[in-house]
Amino acid sequence: MQALDEAGVPVIEVSHGDGLGGSSLQYGMSLVEEMELIEEAAKTSRRAKIAALLLPGIGTKKELQQAKDCGIQMVRIATQCSEADVSEQHFGLAKELGLETVGFLMMAHMLSPEELAQQAKLMESYGADIVYIVDSAGTMLPQDVIDRVIALKKVLNVPIGFHAHNNLGLAIGNSLAAIQAGATNIDASTRGLGAGSGNTQTEVLVAVLSRMGIETGIDLFQIMDAAEYIVDPLMDSPMIVNRDALTIGFTGVYSTFLWHAKQAGEKFGVDPREILIELGRRKAVAGQEDWILDVASDLSSAKGR
Amino acid sequence: MQALDEAGVPVIEVSHGDGLGGSSLQYGMSLVEEMELIEEAAKTSRRAKIAALLLPGIGTKKELQQAKDCGIQMVRIATQCSEADVSEQHFGLAKELGLETVGFLMMAHMLSPEELAQQAKLMESYGADIVYIVDSAGTMLPQDVIDRVIALKKVLNVPIGFHAHNNLGLAIGNSLAAIQAGATNIDASTRGLGAGSGNTQTEVLVAVLSRMGIETGIDLFQIMDAAEYIVDPLMDSPMIVNRDALTIGFTGVYSTFLWHAKQAGEKFGVDPREILIELGRRKAVAGQEDWILDVASDLSSAKGR
C-alpha cells in the first residue's frame, strides 16, 4: 500500500473481489476485516485516493457508510452490464456521502457497443463521475474494446475507464487499445494479481506508456521494485494463462460456470469446453447455471446421433 | 512433439537457443545431443515439418548437413538485423541441400522499418522463402510491428513472419498487429516457453485467431491439453514479466547486458536500469559490453555533480 502510494499510484482500491460485505462463506472469507484494511490504507496513504468496490445486492448502505467513516474517498459501484438500473440509489447515497463515484459495467462483452453505451449513460445520469468498461471474462479482442470505448465516448460527458483480464493474453494490448480509443482510466495490479489470468500488470503498463510518451505520474522503478520485492513474494502462484483461464477467455462465460461445466461434462461424457462454448453462444448469465445440464445433455445426445 | 504434431502445428523447430552447434560451455549445454533430438522428432512427426535454427558464426556447414541427414526440412537462418549479409552462403548451402529456408532478423527494433526492409530484401535475394521480423528483446509496441511488416511487404515477394517476446506483455497483442498488417507466419510456443518472459503462447494465439475466424489448422482443445498436461509439468518456472525481463523490454538491449549492468551498477553506485536505458539510447549491440562500464562511470559522475 505504502509502496504503491509512494510510487505515485493515483487510486488504490481496497476490496474483497465481491466488494464491501463480500466476505462470506458463500463468496470466500477475507483474511482481515475489510474496514480495518480500509482504515489502515487511509491512514497510510499520503497521495493516493482510497477506493472500495460495492456490488448492489451484496454490499449495503450500512457498509458504504462504514467505509466512508473509515476513510474511502471513492466508491466503485459494479453491476452486470445490462443491469445498471439496480445501481441508482447506491450512486445517490455515495453522492450524499460526498464520495467520488465510478460506475463499473461487468461482463461488458455481452452487450453491443450501443447497448453498453445506454447502460453507461444510465450510470452517468445516476451520478457516476467515471464509467468503466469491464472485461470480466478476459474475452475481448482489441477491436471489441475500441468499439465499446468509441460508443461510450459518443454519449457520455464523463471520462471512460477500462478494466482488463489477461485470459487471452491481451490485458496490456487491450489497455493500449482502450487508451488509443479515448479511455483515460485503466485498472491495473502489480504482477497482474487478480482473478483468472490476472489483470493488466501495473509496472508493465507504466513501462509501455512511458515508452509511448504518456505520463502516468507513477515512478517506473519504484513500481517495478514494489512488484518484485513486495507483491511477488506474497503471491501463492504467478498469474498464467492456463487451460481453465483460457477456456473462460475463449468462451466469454462466467468463471463460476467452469466448475459446473466440469461436473456436467463428466456426467454426460462431454468435453466441458464444448458446454461452455455453447453457453457462451446462448449468452447465459449468472443465475442460469441450470442451463449447463441442459446444454450438456443436448451435446451428449447430438454426439450419440 | 507428438502432441504438437497431432494438434496440427505446421512447423516444429528443434533447437538450442543459439541454434545448431549452440550447445557449448559458453552458450549453455543442451541436455541431449541436438542431432538425436532432430532425428527423433523427424521420425515421430507425421505432418509437421521439422526445422532447425542456424546462427552463422555459431553453426557451420557441417552441422547443417548433419541436421539435413537427421531429417530437417527447414532451416531458420538468424542474423542480427543489420547483418543479413553474413548469411549469404548459408542460404546457398541450405538451398543446395533442398531445404526450405527462413530468414530471421533479430533485434529488429534497432533498425528503422525502411532499413530493416533492405536487410530483408538481402535475405530474399540469397534465397529466403520467408523473412521473419524478430523482436528479440520483447521491446516493440504494436505500432512498431505494424510499421515494420508494412515496410517489408512493400519490398518483398516472399511471405513475412513475426517472432515475439512477452517482456512488455505484448506477445499476443503484437502477433495480432503483425497479422493485421499482413504477416502470415507467427512463431509461438506452448505456455510461452522461451527466453525472457517467453514467446507468444501457442494455445492462446490459436484461441484468439479462432475467435477472429482465422483458421490455423491447429486443434484448439488438443493444443490446450498439450500445454497443460505435457509442457507445463516440464517447466522449471512459469513465464512471467519480472523485473529483469521488464527492464530488457523497456530498454530494448540485449539480455546478456543485464548481468554486466548489475555488476557495473554495484561498482559505480548506479541503478543498473539507468545504465541499460542509456545503452539502449546509444544503440549498443552485442560485443559492445565494454560500453557498460563507460556508461556506468558517466552516470556516476553526473550524479556526483
Features:
homodimer; 305 residues; alpha/beta; TIM Barrel; metal-binding (chains A, B); 4-hydroxy-2-oxovalerate aldolase (chains A, B); PYR_CT (chains A, B); aromatic hydrocarbons catabolism (chains A, B)
What can you tell me about this protein's structure?
Two copies of one chain form a homodimer. The first copy, chain A, is built from 13 helices and seven strands. The longest helix of chain A has 15 residues, at 220-234. Chain A has a seven-stranded parallel sheet. Chain A has 305 residues and is α/β, with parallel strands linked by helices. In chain A, helix 6 (142-155) links the parallel strand 5 (130-134) and strand 6 (160-163). Chain A folds into two domains: 2-234, TIM Barrel (Alpha-Beta Barrel); 253-304, Helicase, Ruva Protein, domain 3, CATH 1.10.8.60. The model of chain A has no long low-confidence stretch (mean pLDDT 94). At the A-B interface, helix 7, helix 8, helix 9 and helix 10 of A face helix 7, helix 8, helix 9 and helix 10 of B.
The major sheet of chain A is characterized as: 7 strands, parallel
Mean pLDDT of chain A: 94
> Hey, roughly how much beta strand do the residues of chain A contain?
5-15%
As for the number of domains of chain A, it is 2
Shape of chain A: globular
Question: How many E-type strands of chain A?
Answer: 7
- Named CATH topology of the largest domain in chain A: TIM Barrel
Largest interface, Cβ cutoff 8 Å: A-B, 41 and 41 residues
CATH class of the largest domain in chain A: Alpha Beta
List the total number of helices of chain A: 13
What pattern of helices and strands is seen along the backbone of chain A?
A: HEHEHEHEHEHEHEHHHHHH
Protein name (chains A, B): 4-hydroxy-2-oxovalerate aldolase
GO biological process, one term (chains A, B): L-leucine biosynthetic process
Catalytic activity (chains A, B): (S)-4-hydroxy-2-oxohexanoate = propanal + pyruvate; (S)-4-hydroxy-2-oxopentanoate = acetaldehyde + pyruvate
Pfam family, one (chains A, B): DmpG_comm
